Amino acid sequence: MATSQKNLSVYDKENLPEAKDMKIGFVVSEWNPDITENLFQGGFDALMDVGVFKENIVRWNVPGSFELPYACKKMQESFEMLDAIVAVGNVIQGETKHFDFVCQGLTQGIMELNLKGDIPVIFCVLTDNTKAQSEARSGGIHGNKGTEAAIAAIKMAQLRKDAKFYKAN
């Protein structure tokens, strides 16, 4: 697996864009809450570590991962001042094809939001074969995907800001 050679929680704070005034949204799935709460906490802690103000972080909850694209779209529409949104979820392979349909639908939905919307949406959804794999990537042996997603949000927010600057000049 790709994450077996990487710690998802490691980032170089010194080489990140200034994030103090950034506004970041989280949409968090309530399904598998032990995993999604760890992912959210990893992201939240990373944002605090790089100086984002607590009041600049917005969080919404949704019932499951399939609902993430809709809620992220509504967050884009409701909070135009947000710099980035992180979609947090967890889908674990079961005995049916449900896993495939949920993963495909939510992945496509997040991608479409990124292509059509102006606020970047970061994919922080673990799609693992087992709960142990999800635990390893939500604060366990492989670090925390939530941390990685928060850092990606900062970088994409800066890219968005830079793109607007170049378009204006």
How many separate structural domains? 1
Alpha-carbon distance between the termini?
43 Å
- Annotation field: number of helices: 5
Uncertain segments: none
| The CATH homology group name | Lumazine/riboflavin synthase
**For the largest beta sheet, what order do the strands appear in spatially?**
2-1-3-4
The CATH topology label is Rossmann fold
Question: What percent of the residues sit in helical stretches (DSSP H or I)?
Answer: 40-55%
What are the secondary-structure elements, in order, as H or E? Answer: EHEHEHEHEEH
Give the CATH architecture.
3-Layer(aba) Sandwich
* Strand-pairing-aware structural class: alpha/beta
How many strand units? 6
Describe it.
By secondary structure, this protein is α/β, with parallel strands linked by helices. Helix content is 46%, strand content 20%. The chain is built from 5 helices and 6 strands; from the N terminus they run E-H-E-H-E-H-E-H-E-E-H. The strands form 2 sheets. The protein has a 4-stranded parallel β-sheet with strand order 2-1-3-4, sandwiched between helices. It has a two-stranded antiparallel sheet with strand order 5-6. Helix 1 links the parallel strand 1 (24-29) and strand 2 (57-62). The longest helix has 24 residues, at 145-168. The termini are far apart. The mean pLDDT is 93. It comes from Psychroflexus sediminis.
